[in-house]
């Protein structure tokens, strides 16, 4: 039977402009170049010398894959290589048990974290991978062919939901609609490793960076952009929210990466109760600041996932762009509260939205009121 027809691939984000291209590539790929094998279900992980985990996602994606990576480390005696984008270098380098980190240049400039990337630089970066098994965790049609063509390995394992799955030696079953950690756990299932209980972030990282905040009680607000305009919240909303807290005499700490124009706006906020650390912290320093906060407020971004995994009381503002059930923060004992507006265009999967009403309908008043509910009895404003 035709392998492509038998698979009946359901692509992630089926309405994307890339989906017809994926179908075209897979139509011919599965017929003439299919590398899928059916005899790779009984591999002993410790019969191999090295594993490379390719995680080209953003900070939040990396954090959510941390439990899987750490459990492989716990059960594997060989070398573990993390192949990542430049944005998550600090995370990968500080993750306990990491043997080597390779920074990959994304083949498509639009997704690259470098201003000097090119196809040639991407090829050179992928050629640094030389291991027994490669785990490509995202099912990315942009990444899989480059691994297949330019990296050295015995087996390439991953998902076929993003195209080019015919180049994988082993295709894993994708858990549609389940939390993203269940997707990453499929690699543990492949190696017959028991699924662990997710631990707090400081179990995976040595959070030894000093906390520069001297106040005992403070609220952290992560401002700036998420990397996807459709998930962003207008700067005027942030400024109004900040002033609402300052007017009630709460100490507010601002964190995050912001543009020069945004910096000018936030620098106009002149208040002794405001501590502006935007563009001033490393990730490990940021985690130390968040860890001691009484409340964290942020968008669907890396710092929000970090706050949730640190066990801090977290208020997350979510858009309707993606399936919330898949990318919701990991919580401990109910420490996460979500503000999300249901809209008709839910799950649009648009990186850029001309009218992101799902975020525009979230008002500073809504966020402030929920915040007060969360911190009442926990944080005094005296």
Helix and strand arrangement:
Layout: H1 3-7, H2 19-32, E1 50-55, H3 59-75, E2 79-84, H4 89-94, E3 100-103, H5 119-126, E4 133-136, H6 144-150, E5 155-158, E6 170-171, H7 180-190, E7 219-222, H8 235-247, E8 252-255, H9 260-267, E9 274-276, H10 283-291, E10 295-299, H11 302-309, E11 314-318, H12 324-327, E12 336-340, H13 357-360, H14 364-375
Parallel strand pairs: 1-2, 1-4, 2-3, 4-5, 5-6, 7-8, 7-10, 8-9, 10-11, 11-12
Helix pairs in contact: 3-7, 3-11, 8-14
Tell me what the structure shows.
With 382 residues, this protein is an alpha/beta fold. It folds into two domains: 3-198, Rossmann fold (3-Layer(aba) Sandwich), CATH 3.40.50; 219-375, 3-Layer(aba) Sandwich (Rossmann fold). Helix content is 33%, strand content 14%. It has 14 helices and twelve strands. It has helices at 3-7, 19-32, 59-75, 89-94, 119-126, 144-150, 180-190, 235-247, 260-267, 283-291, 302-309, 324-327, 357-360, 364-375; strands at residues 50-55, 79-84, 100-103, 133-136, 155-158, 170-171, 219-222, 252-255, 274-276, 295-299, 314-318, 336-340. It has a six-stranded parallel β-sheet with strand order 3-2-1-4-5-6, sandwiched between helices. The protein has a six-stranded parallel β-sheet with strand order 9-8-7-10-11-12, sandwiched between helices. Helix 3 runs parallel beside helix 7 and helix 8 packs across helix 14. The longest helix has 17 residues, at 59-75. The radius of gyration is 22 Å and the shape is globular. The mean pLDDT is 91. InterPro entries: Glyco_trans_9 (IPR002201), LPS_LOS_Heptosyltrfase (IPR051199). Keywords: Glycosyltransferase, Transferase. One of its GO terms (biological process) is lipopolysaccharide core region biosynthetic process. One of its GO terms (molecular function) is ADP-heptose-lipopolysaccharide heptosyltransferase activity. Pfam families: Glyco_transf_9.
């Amino acid at each position: 039977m035709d392998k492509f027809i038998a698979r009946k691939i359901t692509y992630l984000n089926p309405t994307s402009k890339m989906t017809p291209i994926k179908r075209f590539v897979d139509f011919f790929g599965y017929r003439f170049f299919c590398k899928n094998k059916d005899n790779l279900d009984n591999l002993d992980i410790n019969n191999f010398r090295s594993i490379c985990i390719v995680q080209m996602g953003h900070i939040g994606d990396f954090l959510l894959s941390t439990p899987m990576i750490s459990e492989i480390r716990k059960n594997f005696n060989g070398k573990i290589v993390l192949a990542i984008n430049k944005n998550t270098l600090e995370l990968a380098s500080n993750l306990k048990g990491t043997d080597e980190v390779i920074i990959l240049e994304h083949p498509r400039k639009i997704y690259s974290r470098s201003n000097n990337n090119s196809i040639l630089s991407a090829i050179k970066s992928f050629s640094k991978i030389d291991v027994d098994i490669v785990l490509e965790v995202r099912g990315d049609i942009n990444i899989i062919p480059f691994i297949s063509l330019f990296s050295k390995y015995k087996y390439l394992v991953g998902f076929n939901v993003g195209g080019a799955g015919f180049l994988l030696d082993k295709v894993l079953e994708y858990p549609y609609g389940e939390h993203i950690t269940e997707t990453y756990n499929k690699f543990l299932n492949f190696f017959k490793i028991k699924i662990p209980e997710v631990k707090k972030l400081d179990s995976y990282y040595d959070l030894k960076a000093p906390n520069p905040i001297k106040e005992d009680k403070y609220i952290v607000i992560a401002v700036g952009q998420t990397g996807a305009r459709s998930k962003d919240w207008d700067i005027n909303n942030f400024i109004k929210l900040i002033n609402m807290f300052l007017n009630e005499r709460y100490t507010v700490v601002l964190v995050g990466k912001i543009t020069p124009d945004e910096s000018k706006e936030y620098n106009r906020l002149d208040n002794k109760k405001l501590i502006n650390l935007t563009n001033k912290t490393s990730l490990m320093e940021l985690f130390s600041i968040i860890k001691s906060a009484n409340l964290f407020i942020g968008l669907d971004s890396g710092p929000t996932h970090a706050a949730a995994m640190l066990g801090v009381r977290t208020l997350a503002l979510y858009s309707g762009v993606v399936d919330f059930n898949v990318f919701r923060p990991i919580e401990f004992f109910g420490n996460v509260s979500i503000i999300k507006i249901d809209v008709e265009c839910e799950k649009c999967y648009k990186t850029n939205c001309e009218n992101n009403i799902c975020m525009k309908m979230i008002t500073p008043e809504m966020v402030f009121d929920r915040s007060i509910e969360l911190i009442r009895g926990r944080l005094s404003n005296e």
